[in-house]
Amino acid sequence: MDWVLFSIAILTGFCIAAICFFVYYKYAINKEGIGIIKNAKKISEQLKQDKILQAKEKFLELKVQHENVINNREKKILDKETKIKEKEKGLNKNLERVNRKELILKTDREEFDKKLSALNRKSKELDSLHSKQVSLLENISGLSKKKATEQLVESLKGEAQTDAMAFIQNSIEEAKMTADLEAKKIIIQSIQRVATEEGVDNSVSVFNIESDDMKGRIIGREGRNIRTLEFTTGVEIIVDDTPQAIILSCFDPVRREVARLALHKLVKDGRIHPARIEEVVKKTKDNIEQEIIDIGKRTIIDLGIHKLHPKLIRIVGRMRYRSSYGQNLLQHSREVANLCAIMASELGLNVKLAKRAGLLHDIGKVPDDEPELPHAILGMKWAEKLGESREVCNAIGAHHDEIEMDNLISPIVQVCDALSGARPGARREVVEAYIKRLKDLEEMAIAEKGVSNAYAIQAGRELRVIVSSNKVSDEQSKKISYNISQRIQNEMTYPGQVKVTVIRETRSVNIAK
Fold first, then answer.
1. What whole-number distance in Å separates Cα of residue 54 and Cα of residue 45?
2. CA distance 491 to 372
3. Helix axis angle, 351-360 to 310-318, nearest 10°
């Protein structure tokens, strides 16, 4: 029994302790929750205050921006209002001026009407007086008004014709005197303003070498190097006793320049043999062709000529290596272009057109082949084909009177061409005849069937003819040599003898890969 009571007491104590612990735990939890809620309230209140402050700052910022926009708009509106007011003031002033002018015009119109009415009255009075005088004159002379007018007109017509003829004659004589003086003045001024040095082209170039030992290498074993050089360039190479010099002889300046540059490269490189010579000569020819184009471009840039066809630019560059009666053709054409520009300026004509015609007037002298047309007509046809204007084409074709002139640029080009060629020392007739004879020799040989190329060397005393080995046999080459010699003998005039050498080579070329 005591044990039961003791157990009940213990259970009761445990229950009371559990109840007390539960009550305490609940109280502690409530207290902590209240603290958390208070902290949460404080934090939320702080966040609320921060957000309110940020919103206020943003509002103030937007308010400032809005005020700035409004101020700018108001400023622009005020500026526009000010401008409108100023325009209104200007319009008011103009309106006042117009009103004043209208009043003045109204007053002037009234005065004009009064004067016009007065003039009409006086005109009527004069007409009546005139009619009275006419009738009085008719009574006195016994002639009607129509007959008297006819007689007066006839007498005045005769006097007018006499006076007009005298006036025309005097005007023509005065114009001739003035024109002669003005023409001489313009020509003299043009010559003085375009004072250029004259350079006469020769048919010989001198190639300088450092030592005479190089001559032997240029000649090569059994002369094979020099023969290859002469064969590939068409230039006669004279190696004589002249110290440190080799003479290149050819009437064609392009060939001489190719030979000179090729020799320079070979001597500088040191490798001189037939294969290398052919390679260098080919590259040099390509370089000369590019240089011709560059010279043409530089020339038109210097003269201020635009939109020239590329083929005409190349033709202008080729003039550098051509001569006319010994006078360098490019130098002559540039001088003619400048003279034309000066004369056209003095006469009030198109300066650019005159300069263009002056530069192109001799393009017919540098053809790739040798046509039978005169160079002026050939140049005109080229210019027409390549899109030049009618005035330029006519000036080119008419500068030697092959065709009629149809504009004022043509006589200017003709005169300037004559001026440039007439300068002392500008031209040399003997050289031109010599070059023409050499060209005729080469053309005569090339005309034969099977001939691939021909070169006149030794001042025209020898003609070397290269034939195609696959088209011409050895027997045919002898016949070609004989035919050419007979044609030269029968058709040409030349001093001494002309040796015709026909060369036929057979080459076999293979490439090891």
1. 14
2. 17
3. 60
Residue 221 corresponds to which tokens in the numbers above?
Answer: 């074993």
**For residue 377, which of 358, 355, 398 has the smallest C-alpha distance?**
398
> How many whole angstroms separate alpha carbon 342 and alpha carbon 339?
5
Query: Exposed/middle/buried for 223, CB within 10 Å: 0-12, 13-18, 19+?
Result: exposed
Q: Which amino acid is at 404?
A: E
Long-range contacts of residues 426-431, Cβ cutoff 8 Å, at least 24 apart: 426/198, 426/200, 426/327, 426/332, 427/200, 427/324, 427/325, 427/326, 427/327, 428/200, 428/325, 428/326, 428/327, 429/325, 431/200, 431/201, 431/202, 431/203, 431/323, 431/325, 431/326
Sequence-distant (6+) residues with CB within 8 A of 266 are 218, 272, 276, 277, 280
- Please report the pLDDT score of residue 427 as a whole number: 53
Dihedral of the CA atoms 485, 490, 493, 494 (nearest 10)? 20
| Alpha helical stretches, state H, 399-459 | 409-422, 429-446
pLDDT in tens, 138-185: 666 665 666 666 666 666 666 666 666 666 666 666 655 665 556 555
Query: Cα 391–330–430 angle (5° rounding)?
Result: 110
Q: Are 481 and 496 in contact (CB under 8 A)?
A: no
From residue 490, give the alpha-carbon distance in Å to each of 124, 437, 455.
99, 14, 20
Please state, in angstroms and rounded to a whole number, the distance separating the CA atoms of residues 396 and 358. Answer: 8
Quick check: helix, strand or coil at residue 426? coil
Give the number of other Cβ atoms within 10 Å of residue 440's Cβ: 17
pTM of the model: 0.47
Residues with Cβ < 8 Å from 507, sequence gap 6 or more?
469
Contact partners, residue 368, CB within 8 Å, separation at least 6? none
Specify the pLDDT at position 159: 66
Give which of 204, 226, 230, 231 is closest to 216, Cα–Cα. Answer: 226
**How does 299-310 read in b/e, with b if 16+ C-beta sit within 10 Å?**
bbeebebeebee
Which ranges constitute the DSSP H helices of 234-328?
A: 253-269, 274-303, 310-318
